[in-house]
Amino acid sequence: MNYNTTVLLIIIPILSSFLVYMPVGLIKKSFKIIFLATILFNLLFSLKIFSVVLKYGNLITIIGNYHPPFGINLVSSFFSILFLIALYIVFLISAIIFIFKNDTKNNQQKISSVLLLYLASFSEIILTGDLFNLFVFFEIFSISNIIIISLKNEKFSLKGSIKYLLISSIGSALLLFAIGYIYAILGTLNLAEIALNFEKISFFSKCFIIFFLMGSILSELEVFPFNLWISDSYAGAKNFVNILLSGISCVVSLYIFIRMFFTIFNYPSISLYSYNFPLDIKLLLLTFFSLSIIVNQLVALTSKNIKRILAFSSAATISTILFALTSGTKSGFSSAILLIISTIISKPLLFLSSHQITKGKMEKNLDSFKNGINRKRYFSILFIVSAIFFTGFPLTPAFFGKLMLFYTYASKLNYYTYFIIVIIFSITVEFFYYFRMIHKLFIKDETERENKNIKNNLSISYFVSGLTMISILIIFFIFPNIYEKVITKMSEEIFNQKEYIQTILKLGEK
Amino acid sequence: MKETDFNVGKFFAFLFLFIIFIFMLFPLFEQGNGLKIEKEIKDLRNRVSFAYSTKSVTDITKTLKESGDYSKYREIYNQERNDIRFKESANLENGSANIVTSIVLDYRGFDTLGELIVLFISIIGLTIILSNLNFVPFNPPTFLQKTGVLFLTPFIMLTSIYISLHGHLTPGGGFPAGSIIATLSLFLMIGYKFSYKLKFLNFIESTSGFLVFFLALLGLFITGSFLGNYLPTGIVGKLFSSYLILILYSLVSIKVGAELSVAIKTLYDGENNDR
């Protein structure tokens, strides 16, 4: 296998997005097939690459026949390809819902083109080994997010997408600023070479670069002062968009965070402060993320709108993951990965099932959950199971993740340990509002008129996608040792900066 | 107070922005021991792009491959190399006389293709958000508009063709040429009420975009790497040199022109009035 074919994961979606966009009669009839076939191709091809990575280790893909650091390159490693496969599965599920729902008749061709570009952009963000290339595709990623948020063309969704546009364009500007700074002082944009030389630059410049990069992805990470867009955009967006936003968008930004901070900047080593600039980055980030966890959980607790509750609880989970990553230790990283697994699988399912339970109600607030167990039995059960998984009942990934989080901060007693109070608070609040929602499902609705004329159609696409996700959840529940080895291997890769540099720049030292 | 009115949030956002602003000022006061890279960083020889300017990436990579360490390229930048002479040197690794074009479409071509998609997706977003809107028709063109357009059209057409074909020789290339083509379509719309179908434009846009990526992808099968140069590069400085860049830039100009014309047409007439 030519390793340079990895680029097909990005180019095939782009080519088919151009193809899908063509206003030709033949394509109008067959664009759905092209759309689904492309996603399936990406899924299968990434599985193929994964098998090669397992055999031979990290693969490097060269673009334009120019070896890095001169040309752009892609790096497929165990961590990145596994991440991609998980995201492709979530994407496939939401794509199935989008294709078979048929309520965007006029624009369906255009939207599928946008979704394919979304697919290409996040594949590239995860695989890239070049900083400016990351910026370009991050831009495409943000723009496609803006478009899919505004799809419903209502007051809420347009408001949400404009808010997102403002915040993400500030973020892009910050990212560009950081890239310019890095190029000015290091003379390169290749991630491996940046990693090689990052130690040599001063603490000031390190802080500068880190804070600007951080600021650029904060809006996608839904951290508190930058997450004001989610209240409108989740509530106003379509169901498949909620799945994409909660299952993919923030997870991709988390990937950027992990790759940048751990592999490139070697974060645990730079958390020490110097004499001329007394700043403890770790303490600062911890305070910031704790504040974000508290605010997000409180907003979720006080909200009435179902989608808003789920959105803010998702934001709180992302902040918890960042909280775990800030520790800079292997156990913190494992805890973050467990929580990411739990988020990727159960959050889309929560959105999907809650959408089906509240379907047909005028206001999608807590009261619309009443009597759900009788109206929509299948989806109510899905909701309950996924809520149990998400909040972290014993033997679920979220449970182990939170346990690891406690272990990370409590195994070594110092003043960071006090921050555990925030996590305990967060878990308590989360339990409370999820069980309030589950409780509502069993209450009889007195205001409900008996209207037997409405047919209780069970859409096949929803049924199948719900079934797929719930079966993945149950597999994780029965065999918790599946992810044990995977996480060990991932943390070894992420904390091994030397191997990453060797793959790309120092072929002789193997 | 409504649920979404979150003024505390606004306060914190401003506070955070203020802190970032203060932070931005810090590097200005950095005292001496800042940049610890060995040589003067202002020297171009400390940057990757020095190899681009001498069109010697392939040679340098060969030397580096023998030593097995690609990060030490700075040390061999001082070695002597063959000069590149205008209208004399032939069969270089890329034949573009304009160094910027050689970087934009060859060494870092993937970024440029990404920027093409940025434009494409923005225009799709525009048309999706503005669909289902009805626009008030404009007044018929006046005498001045008609005459002005009549006078300017041929010049604009000529300029756009010149800029797109000379992208590899002089400043310019696909993106500016595309914008000029879009200006032309705006002029035609104002002056002549010349109405073209959006579907036609969409077809041109997607076909040329498809072709750009397809031609780049052919490199994967012919040279073994995406965007690899599989056409002859010719003599530096001649019009017919570096054929791949020439073809790609012409396609890019068509694509950008059609795309911006779609934007203008959508903002001018709306999608519903498309006849």
The counted number of beta strands of chain A is 2
User: Ends of chain A: how far apart?
Assistant: 21 Å
Largest sheet of chain A: 2 strands, antiparallel
Strand content of chain B: under 5%
Number of domains of chain B: 2
Backbone CA Rg of chain B: 25 Å
Tally the beta strands of chain B.
Answer: 0
Q: Which structural class do you get from the secondary structure elements of chain A?
A: mainly alpha
What does this entry show, briefly?
The complex is a heterodimer of chains A (510) and B (275). Chain A has 21 helices and two strands.
Structure commentary:
The complex is a heterodimer of chains A (510) and B (275). Chain A is mostly helical and 510 residues long. Chain A has a domain of 189 residues. Chain A is 73% helix and 2% strand. Chain A is built from 21 helices and 2 strands. A two-stranded antiparallel ribbon of chain A has the order 1-2. Chain B is mainly alpha-helical. Chain B folds into 2 domains: 56 residues, no CATH class; 171 residues, no CATH class. In chain B, 36% of the residues are buried. At the A-B interface, helix 1, helix 4, helix 5, helix 6 and helix 7 of A face helix 1, helix 3, helix 5 and helix 8 of B.
